[in-house]
Amino acid sequence: MRPVVRHGVRQYSRKTSQRSSLRCNGGYTLTPALSLSTSASNLRYTRLPQSSAGGNASFDPQTRRAYHSSSKKSSAWAAVASVASNVVTNAAKRAVGAGPGPADLPIHPLKVVAKELSTKFLTPSIKNLVASRTPQLDRVAKYYTQAEGKYVRPRIVLLMARATALCPKAGPESLRASAVSIDQAISPVSILSDVNPTTQSASLNPAPDAEPIPGVNPAQRRLAEITETIHTASLLHDDVIDHSESRRGAPSANLQFGNKMAVLGGDFLLARASVSLARLRHPEVIELLATVIANLVEGEFMQLRNTEAGERDPVWTEDALTYYLEKTYLKTASLISKSCRASAILGGADAATVDAAYAYGKNLGLAFQLVDDMLDYTISGKDLGKPAGADLELGLATAPLLFAWKVNPELGALVGRKFAEEGDVARARELVIQSDGIEQTRALAEDYANKAAAALDAFPDSEAKEGLIQMTRDVLKRKK
């Protein structure tokens, strides 16, 4: 099946070719760049040729051919549902081979790494990682570990570790980090003044590594904990910035302890993550995760404005979507993509495998956030575990609204003043619901999810690979 671009959303017919392009204002196709040698947030724009037959055309940058819309009429939502079914079927065939039978049954990602993610292992390890001898700080640092989250990021890191264990290796020297105790200090402890009560003794007298996990070395296991710690720190900071009152069905940390304590708690988690990262003794991995922390801050600054220029009465252009996708990469996909890359590196994978791991994480991360932004319009706060509709209340223009804005110029003034006047939030929400902005957001999320699955094509078949592919399906179906 091939996509047809109609009013900014890909639609499908039997006569068109499936390509991940998005028609933008001014006759351009917006194609997220997949080249692994370019910036992760880079975007290409290709001028669409004029259609001799009239109507809309989508452009394939690889074949330089234009595809024209079919006369078959169907709703955007029906088209999206149809292509989603095909994405699932094709991904399953790539992972376990075509044909009926038990082998075609999906592998649930949690099943593959259930032991590593259980409350017996991951949660206690993270609590040990962030412990403090200062009682109040210890409570703040561990607060979001009490009501366990989805552990999406550690799950991805561990699945990637297992999946890449079967891939070609770069060489024995790439496994040096695995042979060193991940709790052993690099500098003298007396100089570090490391006051983590759970790891200080380990620094002085390194203990044997924890129970081995097939396909996952100690450094990769620690990476999963570090990734979740960085994510939790970002939640503490975000909840202060966004004035959130709830998180994971409980009062937010800023509501429970106050803004100052919450900010300091987030800072402390980043410090603990940095120490653990350094003790992996792998410069490239340290560099990757350090830039994640910088990306989180850069993305938050970008989110302070809905458009790059921050004009008062903006007019819709494709630049608005470009700006949004770059911000989304920095705030969400950077951590997932670079953690995937780091997991492959720590397993000694070769360059092609490392690049594929990064591509998977980047595209999955973008799909994840697109769905998250869509849920803000479609799911109640009770089901989300956090306030619904918060994006508009915070003055944020996310994907559903950006797509709606293209066909509703009235939204420009609301975007410019960040929905600050009385009735702005309700009106903006009404215009989004009336438009096909939600359907377009889902279609774009499906594009990224499909690219994430395709990035694993060269990986040997395994339960871990199928688990990673299943996550690309699950991200589209999630309700919280």
UniProtKB/TrEMBL annotation:
Keyword Manganese part of the UniProt annotation: no
GO cellular component: a single term: transferase complex
GO molecular function terms attached to this record: metal ion binding; prenyltransferase activity
Region (Disordered): 1-21
Magnesium keyword on record: yes
InterPro entries for this protein: Isoprenoid_synthase_dom_sf, Polyprenyl_synt, Polyprenyl_synt_CS
Compositionally skewed regions (Basic residues) per UniProt: 1-17
Domain of life where this protein originates: Eukaryota
One family name in Pfam for this protein: polyprenyl_synt
Record keywords, A-Z: Isoprene biosynthesis, Magnesium, Metal-binding, Transferase
GO biological process, one term: mycotoxin biosynthetic process
Cofactor(s) essential for the protein: Mg(2+)
Family recorded in the similarity comment: Belongs to the FPP/GGPP synthase family.
Protein name, as recorded: Dimethylallyltranstransferase
Protein source organism: Lomentospora prolificans
Organism lineage: Eukaryota, Fungi, Dikarya, Ascomycota, Pezizomycotina
